[in-house]
C-alpha cells in the first residue's frame, strides 16, 4: 500500500534540520516506524526476532556499534535497549551534526540506565493515530490555519452521514484499518486493547497487573470519556466488579496507560478572567483514539447510533484527536475551559504566538448548534481579552453536511471537511 502522507511529516523534517536526533513517540500501530522509514537511510529494528538478542547484547557492551550506518539512522523501539539513548546523546554532542538519528518508541520508559535527558540534543514528537484528513475521510476543504489567519469565505460539503461518522469513531485512525475490509475494521481497536490488557500493561514497567481489573478501569474511563471525572468517580464506577480496588491502585493503572500512550487527556485552559470566577483545573479524560473507548465499552458503530448520549461523547473524542493533530502542525495546544458556574468550552486551540480560538463540538441538530453559539459568546465575555487578546475565531464542529460562516461570525464546520 502506498504511503499516505502524515501531518507530522513536515514537523519531523523541520526538527531534523535543527536537532541531532528526533524521538517519535506514540501508541503502537499509529505508524511511527513507517513514517520514520520515509526519512531514514539505515534502520536498526530492535524488535526483529532474528537479530533482537544479539543486538541487545551488543547494546549492553558497545552500544556505539549499533549506531554505525548511513545517517539519518532509525533506531526503532529504542526503549528495548535504553543504553542506546546515552550513546546517541554523546554522539550528537561529540559531532555537533544535525539530522543524525530518528528514534521511535511506544512506551515512555523510566530507566536508571538513562543518565541524561538529552535536552537540546534529542527532541520529542508525539504521533497520534491518523486524523480524518490523513485517512482521506475528510475533504480538507476548510483549513484551521486559514481560519486562524482570518479567512471568512469558507465552504465545504461533507458526504458523510451519521452512520459513517459512527463507523469512523469505532474504526479509529489506525493505519492498518485502511488495509482490511470495512466490515472487519473495528477488530483492530479490540485487538489493540487485548494486547494492552494482557501484555503491554505489565511490560511497561515490569509490574504485574490484573487484566480483569484493567478491563474494568478501561471501561470506566470510556464511560467517563470527555468529562473531568476524578479517580474517586472511577473507583465508584468499578466497585461493582472489584470491591477491593483502591484509589492508589487506580492511579497506578491509569499511570501505566498514560505511559503506553493509550490515554491522551485534555488539560484545562486557565486564562485571566474579568470576574473572580474560579476555574476548574481537572483534566478532561480522553483516549488517544476514540476507537479504544468504543472497544472498552464492547460496543460497535451500530451501538453508538442507538445511544446518542454516548455517541456525543465519543464524537467529541474523535474531534479532539483531530484538533490535537492539526494544532501540533500550527505550533499550538488543545485545551478546554470550565469554571465553577459550569460554563464550559469543549476545546480551546491556543497557539504559541498568543492567538486562540474557541470550539464547541456538537453532533448536529439546529437546536444544539444555537446552544453552542450562545455558549461560545459567553466565553468571550468572561475572558479578560485585554490580557490575552480577542479570539481569532469561534467555531462549532459538527457531524453535519455544510461548512459556512454564520451571520454572527461563528464558523460551523463538519469535522469531515476540516484539515490543519
What does this structure look like?
This protein is of the alpha/beta class and 420 residues long. The protein folds into 2 domains: 8-126, P-loop containing nucleotide triphosphate hydrolases (Rossmann fold), CATH 3.40.50.300; 142-419, no CATH class. Helix content is 39%, strand content 15%. It has 15 helices and 14 strands. The protein has helices at residues 8-18, 32-37, 52-61, 83-95, 144-148, 162-171, 187-203, 211-223, 231-238, 247-259, 290-296, 301-306, 308-329, 366-382, 385-388; strands at residues 21-25, 42-45, 73-76, 101-105, 122-126, 142-143, 156-157, 332-338, 344-351, 356-361, 393-398, 402-405, 411-414, 418-419. The strands form 3 sheets. The chain has a 7-stranded mixed sheet, with helices on both faces. A 5-stranded parallel sheet has the order 2-3-4-1-5, with helices on both faces. A two-stranded parallel ribbon has the order 6-14. Strand 12 and strand 13 form a beta hairpin. The mean pLDDT is 93.
Beta-strand content: 15-25%
Strand arrangement in the largest pleated sheet: 7-12-13-11-10-9-8
Helix content: 25-40%
The tally of structural domains comes to: 2
Distance N terminus to C terminus? 24 Å
Q: Mind describing the biggest β-sheet?
A: 7 strands, mixed
Class per helix and strand makeup? alpha/beta
Number of strands: 14
Overall average pLDDT = 93
Radius of gyration: 22 Å
Low-confidence stretches: none
In one word, what is the shape?
globular
Amino acid at each position: 500500500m502506498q504511503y499516505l502522507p502524515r501531518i507530522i511529516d513536515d514537523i519531523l523534517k523541520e526538527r531534523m534540520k535543527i536537532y541531532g536526533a528526533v524521538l517519535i513517540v506514540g501508541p503502537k500501530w499509529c505508524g511511527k516506524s513507517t513514517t520514520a522509514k520515509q526519512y531514514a537511510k539505515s534502520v536498526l529494528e530492535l524488535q526483529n526476532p532474528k537479530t533482537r538478542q544479539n543486538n541487545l547484547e551488543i547494546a549492553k557492551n558497545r552500544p556505539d556499534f549499533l549506531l554505525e550506518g548511513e545517517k539519518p539512522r532509525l533506531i526503532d523501539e529504542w526503549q528495548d535497549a535504553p543504553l542506546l539513548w546515552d550513546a546517541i546523546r554523546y554522539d550528537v554532542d561529540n559531532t555537533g551534526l544535525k539530522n543524525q538519528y530518528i528514534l521511535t518508541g511506544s512506551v515512555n520508559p523510566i530507566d536508571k540506565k538513562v543518565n541524561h535527558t538529552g535536552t537540546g540534543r534529542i527532541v520529542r514528537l508525539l504521533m497520534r493515530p491518523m486524523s480524518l484528513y490523513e485517512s482521506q475521510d475528510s475533504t480538507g476543504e476548510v483549513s484551521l490555519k486559514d481560519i486562524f489567519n482570518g479567512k471568512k469565505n469558507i465552504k465545504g460539503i461533507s458526504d458523510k452521514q451519521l452512520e459513517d461518522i459512527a463507523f469512523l469513531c469505532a474504526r479509529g485512525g489506525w493505519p492498518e484499518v485502511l488495509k482490511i475490509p470495512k466490515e472487519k475494521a473495528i477488530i483492530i481497536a479490540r485487538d489493540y486493547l487485548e494486547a494492552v490488557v494482557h501484555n503491554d500493561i505489565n511490560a511497561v514497567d515490569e509490574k504485574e497487573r490484573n487484566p480483569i481489573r484493567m478491563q474494568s478501569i478501561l471501561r470506566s474511563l470510556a464511560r467517563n470519556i470527555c468529562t473531568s471525572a476524578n479517580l474517586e468517580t472511577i473507583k465508584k464506577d468499578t466497585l461493582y466488579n472489584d470491591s477491593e480496588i483502591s484509589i492508589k491502585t487506580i492511579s497506578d493503572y491509569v499511570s501505566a496507560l498514560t505511559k503506553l500512550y493509550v490515554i491522551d487527556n485534555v488539560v484545562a485552559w486557565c486564562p485571566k478572567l474579568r470576574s473572580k470566577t474560579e476555574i476548574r483545573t481537572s483534566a478532561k479524560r480522553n483516549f488517544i483514539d476514540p476507537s479504544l473507548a468504543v472497544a472498552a465499552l464492547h460496543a460497535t458503530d451500530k451501538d453508538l447510533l442507538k445511544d446518542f448520549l454516548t455517541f456525543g461523547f465519543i464524537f467529541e473524542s474523535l474531534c479532539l484527536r483531530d484538533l490535537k493533530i492539526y494544532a501540533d502542525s500550527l505550533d499550538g495546544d488543545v485545551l478546554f475551559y470550565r469554571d465553577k458556574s459550569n460554563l464550559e468550552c469543549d476545546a480551546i486551540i491556543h497557539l504559541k504566538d498568543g492567538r486562540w480560538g474557541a470550539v464547541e463540538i456538537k453532533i448536529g441538530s439546529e437546536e444544539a448548534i444555537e446552544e453552542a453559539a450562545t455558549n461560545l459568546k459567553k466565553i468571550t465575555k468572561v475572558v479578560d481579552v485585554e490580557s490575552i487578546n480577542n479570539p481569532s475565531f469561534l467555531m462549532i464542529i459538527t457531524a453535519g453536511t455544510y461548512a459556512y460562516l454564520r451571520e454572527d461570525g461563528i464558523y460551523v464546520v463538519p469535522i469531515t471537511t476540516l484539515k490543519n
